[in-house]
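User: I'll paste a sequence; please echo it back and then give the predicted structure.

Assistant: Echoing your sequence first, then the prediction.
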Amino acid sequence: MVKRKLFDQHSSGKRKSFIKGKTFIFLLGLIFGGGIIVSAYLTSVYFSTDESCMICHVHPHVEDSWKLSSHVNNRSGVKVHCVDCHLPPKNNTWDHYTAKAQLGLKDMWSYLTKDSADFDWDMKSELEHAVKFIPNASCKECHQNLFPEGITPDGITAHLYYDENEKKLDLQCISCHLDVGHDNPNYTHSKMAAVPGTSTASVAVDTSLYFKEATVVTDFINYTEQVPGTMVSFDMIAIPGGTFQMGSEEKEKFRREDEGPVRRVTVSPFFMAEVETTWDQFWAFYGQTMSEGRTLPEAVYANNNDPEVDALSGPTPPFGFPDQGWGGGDRPAITMTHYAAETFCQWLSMRTGKKYRLPTEAEWEYAARGGTQTPYFFPGKPQDFSNQGFMRTFFNAQTDGISSYVIYNNNSKNRTQEPDKVKANPFGLKNMLGNVMEYCADKYDPKAYAKAGDVTDPWVKEGEEWVVRGGNYTSDAADVRAAARDYTKHDAWLKTDPQQPKSIWWYSDIRGIGFRVVCEVEPPLTGN
């Protein structure tokens, strides 16, 4: 028994010694491995410095031209370094470090085996060579603001054209800005791979593709508007007049106080755009009216009743990427103010000879319902689709019914979507609910429904903020009900705008805001 006990004690001691040995080896390996990682990182940092790059890059002008460039000498105080332009952004770790390894090995080999006096430096300064060593993603990583101070109207047009057509253009940022990283006093934009539409362009816009006349409307039926002087066209839906119950009953789930009391409202016939105003449409307006000046808001709103208006000052450049990098084209135009939307409507009226405007709140809800009186124009209950409520702790919200018709927080991927992602409502309108909140012509009054009973074509013109309807891509299903109301938060939506005075054209702190247009019916029209 004593021998057994001594044997167990001896075995236990050996096991403890073995474990301690393995622990020591593991810790030693961990320290050694950590040291290798830290050393590799410090080495990587060193070989990312400008001084390190200059060791290999011995061509005569590289350092001097870099120091003279706008990437070093600019009023922003930001100094752009070699790796910022010549490597993919660090946020794409794999691409960044593999490119760094490849370029580093190539540069080192050239430095050790070749004579720099044999290189054709003038050729290596040309665009054909430069595009191979400037990742476009790196340019876009630094330049969040598309419109730098002092940019010309041609520059604005070129940037907008590029932003909208980047995928189909065989161009990079460096194609037009070859001299920004290394100063070249002999370089001018006349040598650039020009963007159509600018005065320096080598390819002129084919104006034969522009519409010459607006669509003539003689019947109360759907039509496709074509905007003279542009290639823009869009579909307008004939919305028959009628009477409906505006607002929501007290028993409707998620109802808010400003949605009642329910009142009987009659609206006259009108035309409404099938989809929200798109970037293609808005940029056409921008290109024809952009201005550094200002038409005062009170003048723009007064013009709503003036058929003789023949000139407008259009938007100043937005700060940054107005489409948030999500893409333009058919996606809804966003971030513009109510004032900008009103100005767009007046421009559209001038170009087409029709009366375009924002919908009244009553017209908007009537159109959104599409002849229904349920919370949505499609089957389903708000409590089943919403993420709110105690039961969502255990069960996910239903998405099958709503996702076919609405872009909201459960299916939007946190961005706006093209209109072909959803089905139309019974009137033939898309995205009336979700995608972006839409401006109405009415001022917001939380007591508006209580102040008037049965009414025809109501239009609230007193108040501080504007009505917005429909919810957006971040909204819960509870907030995209047909009766749900909301309003602008003007000061909050401009909080981080760096300009002084604040922009009257663009919001800095709201993404999911846009609009769609209506067109008034002008007699005599026939049809349904």
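The chain has a mean pLDDT of 80. Residues 227-279+298-310+326-520 form a domain with the paralog of FGE (formylglycine-generating enzyme) fold (CATH 3.90.1580.10).
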